[in-house]
Structures are given as structure tokens and as C-alpha cells.
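User: Last request for today: this protein with NDP, please.
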Amino acid sequence: MPAKIYYDNDADLSLLQDKTIAILGFGSQGHAQALNLRESGCQVVVSELPGTANYQLAQDNGFEPLPTEEAVQKGDLIQVLLPDEIQGDVYRSRIAPHLRPGNVLMCSHGFNIHFGQVEPPPGVDALLVAPKGPGHLVRSEFVKGGGVPCLIAVSDGAAESTRALGLAYAKGIGGTRGGVIETTFAEETETDLFGEQVVLCGGVSQLVKAAFETLVEAGYQPEMAYFECLHELKLIVDLFYQGGLNYMRYSVSNTAEYGDYTRGPRIVNEQTREEMKKILAEIRSGQFAKEWILENKAGAPAFKAARRQDRQLEIEEVGRQLRRLMSWIDAKEV
Ligand code: NDP
Ligand code: MG
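Assistant: Here's the final one, the structure of the complex with NDP:
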């Protein structure tokens, strides 16, 4: 069955006219969604932690950030845009006690609802409106008159009006300009985790690291290895994005295309596909979610160690030097 996709004409912003939207967290998604909604004429309140940079950012943007409890009390739609790993705790202590029947509890990633960390009380529907792009793009595309495509999902047994509110919300952040795909909490959560683990974050960074190290160990200059294995990846992905695999193959040399068909399957082989299936099974069974929740309960020691270790890699050091010399690429350091 083809996916159901909604556009501007399927959504009615006036449904939000007499509603207050509480955005909890003014981070990557929070700042983008709050600003877009306000400019779409919606009534928005935000909550942030006092004394943080994002609290200041919210103030600089004309919001007066409230404590979480107060924002929940004011909101008819409560959009939780806190880091996923703290949502369960904040929900139990600061959100749930203030929810009223008729409220709609929202999120932009289904992890906590799907894996039972957030369980809305009777009378409160769960609604997912998830932009398929980073918050900064959600904002910049909207400002340009465009929008980042979104996903929408409602909890089992939710009122039909909840989906309509979700479409209005998606319109308010610019999503219906790009298209809003109907999904379920399970599908959004599982495919999102799979994509980031296997391709977007895990798969790609491991591929780049291993290829860089192979060249450097063989005696090639690290600068060469950096350009070949990391920098040029963007150019290839841009071609995928514009015209799929075929457009990339049209654009590269025949030699590169022949290497692609004959060598690619040796890198991502049967064993890799078997591992992908295992990773998907760990996601679906909840094993990954349990591991990540426990890791955070313990203060995230393995997570922090891995982060520290990868920041010291040679590819990162070489890249930092090279990016400084490429003024046009808008180099970033965190
Ligand atoms: P961020 O970490 O960028 O933002 C979260 C914000 O919440 C931060 O400003 C953080 O402050 C603040 N915060 C932390 N604790 C509290 C608290 N107790 N009360 C109030 N504010 C608090 O998160 P993201 O925007 O990346 O993610 C939010 C949600 O959006 C997640 O569910 C994520 O999966 C989803 N999402 C994110 C995407 C993205 O591109 N980033 C894409 C699609 C979905 P501080 O930084 O000071 O700790
Ligand atoms: Mg994702």
C-alpha cells in the first residue's frame, strides 16, 4: 500500500486558533518548532532550564521560558522536545501530574512512548509530529518559504480530531509544504533507530574511519586519506539526494562505476546484511532501548568513554586542520 501523504490543503491551521502549544525544551527541535509556530500565528509557550544557553536563546527570541510544570498547565498541546534519554524521568515527575483530559501529549520521536517510558493517562491522546531533518533545517527551510517533510502518528484509539490537530501543527512548522507521511509509533521509532545505527551515524562513520585508517596504515598521507574518504563523501551524497544512485553513477567516471559494482558488495556483504538483521531484531525486541535506558541510569559511562575516544582520532585532528583552510565550507567545532 502506498504511503498516505498530506500537504498544505489537507491541514487546517485554524484548529489551533484557541489552543496553547507548550514546547518543552528550546534545543535543536524546540527552537525551530516554537519559532515557526509563532510565525504561523499560533500561541506558544516554552519551557527551559534557567541559567542555560538555550534559556537565554529563548529570551533573545522573545519568549519568557516557564518551569516545565507551568508550561504543561498552560498547554493544550504539550510537545516534549527534551533529550530522549531524560524524557521518562521528566514525564513522571514534572509533566504527568499536570496533564488534564483533552490535552494532547506530543513528541518528535516515538522512543519513549513506544518503549513504555511515557504512558499518557486516560483522556490524553499521544501524537507524533516528527520533522525528518535537524532542527536548524526545520527553521531555515521555513524562513525560506519551504519546509522539512514530517511524519505523523497517533496513539491507538486516539480521537480523529487529534490527527487533524497534528496536521495543523505540521502545517504550522512548515511540514505540509514538504509532505507529511502517515505512520505509527512503532514504525517511526524502529526505522529511525535502524537508520541512524546502520546507515546515517553508525554505518557511515565506521566506514569512513576504517577506510581512512587503512590508507594511513599503508603509508599514504593522512590529508589525502581525509579528502578521499570523508570530504568527498558529501559530493557523492549530494548526487544521491538529487537523483538517486543512478545519478551518482551517471556523474562519476566509468572506472568509478565499475569499482562500485564489483567492489561494493565485498564491503557490504552477506555477513553485513546478517548483522543488520540482528540490529533490527535488537531494536524491535526492545533490547536496544533497555540497554540505552540502563546506560543513562548508570550515568552513561560507556557512552561518555566512546565519545572521548573518538574525539581523539587522527581523522578528527587532520580534518580540523584542513577545514580551517577551506573558508567556504562553514567549518564547525563543538
Ligand atoms: P536538544 O538536546 O537539542 O534540546 C533539548 C533541550 O531541552 C535543550 O535545550 C536542553 O537544555 C533542554 N532541557 C534539558 N533538560 C530539561 C528540563 N528538565 N527541562 C527543560 N528543558 C530541558 O534535543 P533535540 O532537539 O535534538 O531533540 C528533542 C526531540 O526531538 C527528541 O525526541 C529527538 O529524538 C527529536 N528529534 C530530534 C531531531 C534533531 O535533528 N535534533 C530530529 C527529529 C527528532 P540543555 O542543552 O541546556 O541541557
Ligand atoms: Mg532519525
